[in-house]
Specification:
Layout (H helix, E strand, L loop, with lengths): L3 H12 L5 H8 L3 H10 L20 H12 L9 H10 L6 H21 L11 E13 L2 E12 L5 E6 L4 H15 L1 E2 L2 E4 L6 E4 L5 E3 L1 H10 L2 E4 L9 H13 L6 E2 L2 H18 L10 H8 L4 E2 L8 E5 L6 E4 L2 E4 L9 E5 L3 E6 L2 E7 L1
Parallel strand pairs: 1-5, 1-9, 5-8
Antiparallel strand pairs: 1-2, 2-3, 4-10, 6-7, 11-14, 12-13, 14-15, 15-16
Helix pairs in contact: 2-3, 4-6
Length: 367
């Protein structure tokens, strides 16, 4: 089989240097027919695949090999055998042929199985109030003349496609809580199911399949809003494809060209207006005679009623220094002098830090 470098040399020798077929064949030590094939086809690469593969020794073992391959494919990725192990298993049953025949057969078997799987794809559809999807994106903006990378939280109602986006300085758990509350307040309700990727602020352990060990505070938030959280399979973004598409849409339509604002509050007020304006101006992808906002207004009564703000803070225990300072997240916060000598609980919200000791507030700082 010709390598692409040889094909490229043949083409250059003929079309750039003007050499004849005979000269090229002599210089590159290939046949004239090969040179003619390259020049007449105009192709830059050639693939050879044998149409009929003789399997004199595999023959009657093909049925058993099919069974081994099918059983192996049904196992979880961690438990699947390598192809050489399958070959050894087949040899143990009496097969006396070579590995290459098994390898070629398995490659073709996998290709055919992949095509049949792809043909069975069914698009997802969602009933009103059934599910929303959540994701983060990183965008670049100018705040008070300084280039800043902000983290944008995205929420999307799967039925109406109503969108919500809000920018934060980081992706911490308190920011996750705040984004959910503001989105649900806008929607005036939530869905029965929330679809997420395996973000560390929500998922602590990933088990085989859909099993997850969720963070305790995250589960409290879901319980408050009556949401059943569902995590996607790792590296399977299509399971929350709507919000993945929203990330690209918001980046293209809202954050290009680069936005300029004084602070995050101004940026987020503008983002909220843009989300509502977009929903009122664009058609729903399935119910094309209605806008996204029209479908959202119909879906809104079907949502789980908004339960009010969740007390969404991330809590850690800290000590107080002799200078009445508490260190949290690489920053130092002052507290009342009476708190010195005993531990305190730092409660981090999206917009403020509250420090408590024995249930009473000993300091509060706006961010």
């Amino acid at each position: 089989m010709l390598v692409v470098e040889t094909i490229a040399r043949i083409r250059r020798e003929h079309f750039i240097k003007g050499k004849t077929i005979k000269e090229i064949a002599r210089d590159l030590k290939v046949s004239r027919n090969t040179v003619r094939k390259v020049l007449r086809s105009g192709e830059t690469s050639f693939e050879y695949e044998r149409q009929v593969q003789p399997r004199p020794k595999l023959g009657r073992w093909a049925v058993e090999l099919d069974g081994l391959l099918a059983a192996n494919a049904a196992k979880s990725a961690r438990e699947q055998l390598t192809l050489i192990r399958i070959f050894e298993e087949l040899r143990g049953r009496g097969y006396d042929g070579g590995y290459d025949a098994v390898r070629r057969y398995a490659r073709r078997w996998s290709k055919e199985r992949g095509q049949s799987t792809a043909a069975a794809y069914v698009p997802l559809s969602f009933a009103p109030g059934e599910a929303y999807q959540f994701d983060w994106s990183h965008e670049v903006v100018l705040l008070s003349g300084t280039t800043v990378v902000v983290k944008v939280a995205h929420v999307r109602l799967c039925h109406s496609r109503m969108l919500f986006a809000r920018a934060y300085p980081r992706e911490t758990q308190e920011m996750v809580f705040d984004a959910h509350d503001r989105a649900f307040a806008l929607f005036k309700g939530t869905c029965t199911r929330g679809i997420y990727d395996n973000m560390k602020t929500a998922v602590e352990t990933i088990f085989v399949g859909k099993g997850r060990l969720y963070n305790r505070r995250f589960l409290q938030m879901c319980s408050h809003y009556l949401v059943d959280p569902v995590a996607c399979t790792p590296a399977s973004g299509w399971e929350k494809g709507q919000v993945e598409n929203q990330v690209g849409l918001v980046r293209e339509r809202f954050f290009t060209p680069r936005l300029r604002f004084k602070n995050l509050d101004e940026l987020n007020a503008w983002l909220l207006d843009k989300c509502i304006t977009y929903a009122k101006a664009h058609r729903h992808p399935e119910l094309v005679d209605q806008t996204i906002w029209d479908v959202f207004e119909v879906e809104r009564p079907r949502l789980v009623p908004y339960a009010g703000r969740f007390d969404g803070f991330h809590a850690v225990t800290a000590s107080v220094s002799k200078t009445c300072l508490v260190r949290f997240d690489n920053n130092k916060y002052s507290v009342a002098a009476s708190a010195v000598g005993r531990p305190v609980e730092v409660q981090a919200y999206a917009d403020r830090i509250v420090i408590r000791q024995d249930g009473r507030i000993v300091a509060e700082h706006q961010l």
